[in-house]
Amino acid sequence: NLFMQATSAIFTDVNNDGLQDLYLINSLNLVSSKLYINNRGKPFEEFSVSFSPEPELPIANSSLVDFDNDGRAELLLVLRDKKELRLNLYTPEEDKPFQFNLISPDFLKLPLRTHQLNFSDIDRNGLTDIIASVYLTEEQKKGYADVYLNHLYGRTFSQDNTIRKLSSGWNTNLITADFNGDDISDYYFAFRWKTDIILLSSGEEFMTDSAFHDGKLPYNTLAAVSFDKDNDGDLDLILSSEEEFLTLLENKGGRFYKNHSPLPGSPLSVNPASVKSVHFRTADFNNDGWLDLLINYGFDTSYQNILFMNDKKGGFEDLSEFVGIRYPFTPKSVIADIDDDGDIDILGYGQSGNYLWINTLDNRKFIRVRIETSESNKGAYNTKIYLYSAGHSGDKKFLLGYRETGSDANVLGAGNEAVIHFGLEEITAADIIVRFPSGRIVKKYNIPAGTIVTVNETGLVTSVLYLIPPVLLDFFTNSETYLYASSILLAAFILYFGMNQIKRKYRTDELTVIVILAVNISVYWISLFLTSRFDGVFKYYSAAGFLTASILLPHLLFLRLYGRKISGIRPELLYDKLLEHHFKFFHGEWAANNLNGILLFAKNLKQNPENKKEIEERFFGKISLFRELTMESVSEIILLHKETEPDDPDLSGLEKSADTLVTATGEILHSLKDEEIHTRLEIVTAEIPRLKNYLQKLRFKTFLHFSTPLIPFLEKLTGEFRESNPGIEISLEVKSETVKQINVLIKPAEFTVILDNLFRNSAAALGGCNKKNIWVSVERRTPKIIMEFRDNGHGISDEIQQKIFERGFSGHNSTGTGLADSRSTLLKYGGRLYMKESLPFQNTTFVIELNESHKDAKPDSADR
Length: 864
Hints:
By secondary structure, the protein is an alpha+beta fold. Among the domains are: 1-112, no CATH class; 386-465, no CATH class; 478-544; 571-705, Up-down Bundle (Four Helix Bundle (Hemerythrin (Met), subunit A)); 707-853, 2-Layer Sandwich (Heat Shock Protein 90). The protein contains 14 helices and 44 strands. The strands form 11 sheets. Strands 4-3-2-1-33 form a 5-stranded mixed beta sheet, with no helix packed on it. It has a 5-stranded mixed beta sheet with strand order 5-9-8-7-6, with no helix packed on it.
């Protein structure tokens, strides 16, 4: 997807099926991030990744990290604010790895120009720490590196600036690895405009690099990677700088020697100063037992991907064209055995698009190692894996390969698969030694080629014991624990109070009390289970609500048995029902049409037409409909008005008119003589207009309870919003003078909520715009009042326009109910809310249609 601009690509096995799935995290929310589920032998299954709540800031980078040692990695999002980076931690839902919930908002804030984050267990307490490498300070001075030590399983981090002074410079790359074989992590710092340094740690202090390398380290370095190039059991370095495109530092027993000749076999003849971006990846792509080098690089005028195959003689051979990966260029890459065939595949990603290169080597000359830690950090960072010829474990002469996890990861967000891959060439079996950061050593013998082996740091029982502290801490520090506890306490109170009332008030026997208690306890726990997957407070307290309803049922039953009455409907709800019935009568049209049809046929029959029999049949059908359905609606209106305004003379007139019509129509249906029918037709033709008039007047009076003076109300509300948002220019245009005197059919409070929601949405859409305008216009288009609400904000995409009125859908950090509720409210009053158009930064228009209300109820000419 060329529009995605993925800032991070992370391989991980989300469903534990042994296949590597892929997260592509997008920098902006305009195009959602993606999860691609790897299905064996089938295409990837695509899911849109959602965050709850959605980040309000651009995603600068991301990574999967297990800070709390619970065995489930969380997604670390690095959000870019104006002056800093904010680190937020999201956890995936158990059965929905594409839905993430925020668990640690802004748990760390770092300088804006933090160039890189590394993960390692610096203080060796079994928890993953963070090393933040800053390129430039806020004061535009040289950067530095600080360590953030993990305490209480990710609950708190403390800043350690021990290496800040030593790492001062324009940091471009940081490698955390053991360079001298003492099982303690060291640092390699690459700098712009300064010579690189190596900090070797003794565990208590750091030694500078001067005694540990041959001559000066490179200057003006852009990128670096460490890996065992020559299979001698220590980590070498390859760097790219503006002085020399590729520099090899060979590690000989903890001492680095610069290879002064160009890399053998390298065809590159470029001006190093023209290099703009470099990204390294290392893997054994051809399963010959030697690590190869993948480079994504960009020059002033061209971009290429290069695959240097290790020639086993100290150099590399450029096989990019031969294997077909030189183009299209991608700024970054990640590697994994995607198709589980025993060779390493490549995913390139970035602003130029995302591309997948499948390795078709397909031989069985490999051993793959999964690392499972318990005492050490869960990311297994800085774990050492040694591969020996079978039967020669520990003999350096028979060393086939060496890896240190995390030593080659030089870009945050580029998440290689966690499985360690060794090519074997002609070797048929091998021994493995794994040295964990805790100091534990685990050995596996005679592993046949083509095998994926899991190496556990400890046994099953011990590994479970190591899980207990983080699980207990999570339980007691998790807000859910206390929410569920409060829900259970609330349920206990409801049960005690409810059962006590049933027992004392209605003198029920013990067996009845036990049965009711058992049923209600079951209702509570079943409800708690069924709502556990819901979001928000509802999932914790809805079960208590169901319990309340369940315990009220026997109360209501006993109340009925004891002859007690339930109180009536509140007055404000009566008016709502009246409004609903009046709308159904006039705006639903069938009832009003029935009255108009009776009136029309009655007038025709009075003239004794030639097709009298045909008209009579249709007339009698209209009368039957009137008596069965229309009068039912009229009776409901009468009953409701009796509850609200029982002494209203118009109500009395409506009752009389309705009774007269019922009597007259009943007599017509009973086949009276022609003269008598003619008399009844006179009554019907005179009475129907009166009935409609009384209904109309009562409707106007009902509307008075839902009436808002439009223009004064808009002037007041726009004025208040203008005061609270001085950066937004708000204009109100009244397109016809008659509108100024109009009242609209809606309650002021409900109208306020609708307009406030539109104002707030516009204000959010205007964020970041230089010129911010909101235009409100009102005009009369009989029979409606039309109000247009426009802004020149970011606009709304076609995809979002299809969902914007759906309940629960939110384009930014909100409840997702505002527009849905507004449309529902307007529908109640016979109005509408819809989007007219959206042109980004020009014109996004919402239209509100309202019915006209009345300042006072006036009879029409049909009155008596």
